[in-house]
Write a structure and sequence with these properties.
The protein is an alpha/beta fold. 41% of the residues lie in helices and 18% in strands.
């Protein structure tokens, strides 16, 4: 099977199921595992470099209003790869090439490739998506084993926080303007022994304002901006603190959003474990320094 993945999370799942050799095309953002970097890139971002958080938000809003794409599909590369299966999504036009564009390109190329939408909105649905991809690529037994392993780790964390007070937590999916978390992130907060003060499971992330954030009752704030690694997330968190946008004394953490929070793949369980360490260090100890850091 020749697989093209237009989602970093799907790329991670394909490799985790032992089918990395079947993966022939990826996006420019598919950077995990490192071996993915060796695949043909078929989708690139059209966002200019050097924009700050407010600039990125404004440009994305402008392009969406104009019906313009945030990502560009390389139809030539797609044609040369002659894929049997294309993994994509229809959940967020800011995250990858729109599925309609993919189907139109394949029709234009006369390709018979199957297009599989992978659109999990909750943490349980993320685990189900592993099974869905496993079935599509002939790796169902491997998918069941992986889901079992991930579920067991979630159960271990859940057991440890079951009798603990739930800590009101604010995860910021963006910082300028602030965005409350959506999709699977509220589930992650709950699984880690927290209470999500803004945002709801399965729904889109919600644009907010700093007055709402201040009134949320959060006892810890976590910077997890979509598209940012730990250093980038920490820089945005520091900017929030420098501008005194949070209530005085509210602890602020930065996490590796790309690895642990915004890509709906196996590493979300690492994100849950990291959140648990942030919210309940008396149980789990301090979080891994490569995954999270306190920002002062």
């Amino acid at each position: 099977m020749r697989i093209v993945s237009l989602l970093p999370s799907a790329t991670e799942i394909v490799f985790a199921l032992g089918a990395g050799d079947d993966l022939v095309g990826v996006t420019v953002e598919c950077d995990y595992p490192a071996e993915a970097r060796g695949r043909r890139i078929v989708s690139t971002s059209t966002m200019p470099e050097g924009l700050d958080a407010a600039g990125i938000d404004a440009l994305v809003a402008e392009r969406k209003a104009a019906g313009e794409d945030v990502y560009r599909l390389d139809e030539g590369a797609l044609a040369e790869l002659d894929a049997d299966l294309v993994l994509t999504q229809n959940l967020c036009s800011v995250c990858s090439v729109d599925v309609t564009q993919v189907r139109q390109a394949l029709d234009f190329l006369g390709s018979s490739a199957e297009v599989l939408n992978v659109d999990p909105r909750t943490l349980p649905e993320v685990l189900d998506s592993v099974r869905t991809i496993g079935a599509a690529i002939g790796r169902s037994p491997e998918a069941e084993r992986l889901v079992s392993e991930l579920s067991e780790r979630l159960d271990v964390t859940g057991d440890k926080v079951a009798d603990r007070r739930r800590v009101p937590a604010l995860v910021l999916e963006w910082t300028d303007p602030p965005y409350a978390p959506g999709h699977w992130i509220p589930d992650m907060i709950t699984a880690a022994g927290g209470e999500c003060v803004l945002g709801r499971s399965g729904e889109h992330s919600l644009r907010s304002d700093w007055a709402t954030v201040a009134a949320s009752g959060a006892e810890v704030a976590i910077s997890a901006p979509c598209g940012f690694d730990l250093p980038g997330s920490a820089a945005l968190a520091a900017d929030v603190l420098d501008r005194a946008l949070l209530p005085a004394g509210l602890p602020m953490w930065a996490v590796d959003a790309n690895a642990l929070f915004v890509r709906p793949g196996p590493r979300l369980v690492d994100g849950v474990e990291t959140l648990a360490a942030i919210l309940h260090p008396e149980v789990f100890g301090e979080p891994d320094a490569g995954r999270a850091r306190a920002v002062h």
